[in-house]
Amino acid sequence: MKPDDPLLQILxxxxxxxxxxxxxxxxxxxxxxxxxxxxxxxxxxxxxxxSGEQVSDDEHEELLKRMTS
Length: 69
Prior knowledge:
Layout: E1 21-23, E2 28-31, E3 36-41, E4 44-45, E5 53-54, H1 57-66, E6 67-68
Antiparallel strand pairs: 1-2, 1-6, 2-3, 3-4, 3-5
């Protein structure tokens, strides 16, 4: 997935329905409000609630630096 992919405009977190941000080069989507990261596997976002993983506060800060859009 690329930062200019139009799909990014309509994807939402399955838990709070808010926007997600692309994190490169991890190829993941991130919800900074809930500190949850969702993987992108073979170009397909994995947006089931169980697919997301909680990140630590330190990792949250690092992800904020690498977010696009």
